[in-house]
Structure prediction request, 133 residues.
Amino acid sequence: MNIKLLYFLIAIVLFLWIIGCRKELPVEIEQGTIDNVNAFITITSPQTGDTFKPGDWLQIRWGSSTSIDRIKIELYNNNVLRAILTDHYLNSGVYQWGIPFAMPLSNKYKLRIISTRDTSIYSYSGTFKIINQ
Prediction:
């Protein structure tokens, strides 16, 4: 038998023996959270049917998961984006917006709050009105 072939066969046998005899090592799982698993935003104010007028202060309120650190608030009128109220706001659960006096009047306004880290996490408010009362 060729000596190189003999060394090769011995190396394969040793390799298979080592692999077959190895002990399974325990796997350590790091404790913590996975970002955006069950992440949510829920707008609680304004609600459907709420009425405001130009010059009012609208208090926007929401609840969310703690994994969301910053949010963006968009204003829609008749399902068309009309303004970005803030684009990198701390997720505090409340934002005060002064409705401009020149705001077009409509009964089809709504807000959308979006996570700035993961834009698939968002919520729409109910439809509210900005009218002269």
Summary: The domain at 41-130 is CATH 2.60.40.770 (Immunoglobulin-like). The two ends are 103 Å apart (CA to CA). The helical segments are 3-21. The first strand starts at residue 41 and ends at 45.
